[in-house]
Amino acid sequence: MNIWIAIGLTAVGCYLAKLLGLLVPAGVLERPLVQRLAALLPVALLAALTAQQTFGDGRHLALDARATGLAAAALALVLRAPFLVVVGSAVVVTAVVRALL
Amino acid sequence: MAEQTAPPQSTGGPGTPGTGTGKPDAAVVRDALGVGIAVGLSGFAFGVTSAGSGLTLLQTCALSLLVFTGASQFALVGALAAGGNPYTAAAGAFFLGIRNAFYGLRLSQLLALPRALRPFAAQWVIDETTAVTLPQPTRRAARIGFTVTGLTLYTLWNLTTLVGALGAEALGDTDAWGLDAASPAVFLALLAPMLKSTTERVTAGLAVLLVLGLLPMLPAGVPVLVSALAAPVVLVLKGRRGSGTDRTLTEGTTHTKDSR
After folding, report:
1. Which region ranges are annotated with the description Disordered (chain B) (predicted)?
2. How far apart are CA B256 and CA B70, in angstroms?
3. How far is A31 from chain B, CA to nearest CA, in Å?
4. Is B58 on the interface with A (CB under 8 A)?
5. Which of the four, A92, B44, B63, B122, has the lowest number of CB atoms within 10 Å?
6. Which of B111, B143, B208, B259 should one mutate to test binding to chain A, selecting the residue with the greatest count of A CBs within 10 A?
C-alpha cells in the first residue's frame, strides 16, 4: 500500500510539473534566481543519489563492489560511451568484482 | 582526455540555435528516432532495477506509464528499496521532476500547441524531447521532433520496462548480477553533462558530502532531500562573491542530457 501511495504522489506531482510549464504564461517562471535554482537542483539531487546508492547500505556507509562498478561507469563517460554502455559496464564490473571477492 | 579532443558534435542541445532554415522533415525524424530509440531501450535497466528493489510487475509498469521521467523513477525506487517512507521517497522524485516545468515553458513558446492539446502533450515534456525539439529551426520541425521523440520514447520505454521487470523475476537475486549498480550509474550518466562549470561541480561535491555525512544520522530518504539544499547554498555563496561572471540565462537554464 505504501508503495502505491508513493507511486500515486510521484505520478501526480511529476505530471503537474510538466503541465505547469506548458500552461503558465511566459514570464512567471522567468525570474533569473528561479531559473538558476531549477537548473542547479537536479545537479545536487543526482550527485547525492549517485553517492547514496554507491556507498550507502541502509543507514551505514559501505565500500564494496558497487564502487568499482561506478568507477567503470565514470571511465565510460569520460570515453564518451553511449548511455547503455555506461550503465552496462557498471553492472558487469560490479558483478565480476562481487563474484571474485 | 577524450573529452577535450572529441569534436563538439554531441550537442544538438538547446544551447545551439538551429542554423539553416528549411530542415527537411526526414532529417528531423531521424534525429528524433535516434534519441528515442537509444534512450527508450534503457527502460530495460529501470524495469530490472525496480523489480529487483521489490516492486511488483504492475507497480513497475505503472511508474513508467504514469511518471515517465527516468531520474524520478529511479530515485523513487531506490528510496523505497532503502526503506524510506512513501512521502520522503515521493518528495525526492518530485524535486527531480521540477525541471520539466522549465522545459515546458520553453517548449510551449516553440510548439504553440492549442490549449486543449496541452494536457496530453505534457506527459512527454522531458529531457530528451526538449533536447530534440529546442534546436529545430521552424515550428513545423519542432512539432515533428517533439512528437516523434515523444511517441518513440514513450512506447519503447514502457515496453522495455515490462521486459526488464519480467527478466528480473527470471534472474532471481539481481544483486548477484551487479544490477544494483545500474541505478547509480544512470544517475552519474545524467549528472555528467550537467557539470559544465565550477558552480555545478561545487554543488555536486557539496551534495555528496551532505548525503554521506547525514546518511548514518537521518531516516532513509531524508539525507537526499537535505542535500538538495546544496543548490541554494551555492547560489547564495556565489551571489555574495559578485555577480559579474554570471553566464547568460539561456545557458544556465536548460540542462539536458541529450548525450545519453
Report:
1. 1-24
2. 13
3. 10
4. no
5. A92
6. B208
- 0.90 surpassed by pTM: no
Q: What is the 3-state secondary structure (H, E, C) of chain B?
A: CHHHHCCCCCCCCCCCCCCCCCCCHHHHHHHHHHHHHHHHHCHHHHHHHHHHCCCCHHHHHHHHHHCCCHHHHHHHHHHHHCCCCHHHHHHHHHHHHCHHHHHHHHHHHHHCCCHHHHHHHHHHCCHHHHHHHCCCCCHHHHHHHHHHHHHHHHHHHHHHHHHHHHHHHHHCCHHHHCHHHHHHHHHHHHHHHHCCCHHHHHHHHHHHHHHHHHCCCCCCCHHHHHHCCHHHHHHHHHHHCCCCCCCCHHHHHCCCCCCC
**Average confidence (pLDDT) over A39-43:** 88
**Is the CB of B99 less than 8 angstroms away from the CB of A82?**
no
Chain B hits for A40, CB-CB cut-off 8 Å, are 199-200, 203, 231, 234-235
Q: Identify whether the C-beta of residue B78 lies closer than 8 Å to the C-beta of residue A49.
A: yes
Instruction: Give the residue from A83, A101, A80, A57 showing the smallest Cα distance to B180.
Output: A57
Q: How far is B187 from chain A (nearest CA, A)?
A: 6
Q: Could you say which residues from 3 to 22 on chain A have a Cβ atom under 8 Å away from some Cβ of chain B?
A: 3-7, 9-11, 13-15, 17-22
Query: Which of B1, B205, B235 has the CB atom closest to A37's CB atom?
Result: B235
At B195-227, the pLDDT tens digits run 989 999 999 999 999 999 999 998 877 899 899
Give pLDDT tens digits for B168-190. 888 888 888 888 898 899 889 88
Condensed to tens digits (0 to 9), the pLDDT of residues A53-87 reads 999 987 889 999 999 999 999 999 999 988 788 98
Q: Which three cell numbers stand for residue A46?
A: 543526482
ipTM of the complex in this document:
0.91
**CB B42 to CB A35 under 8 A?**
no
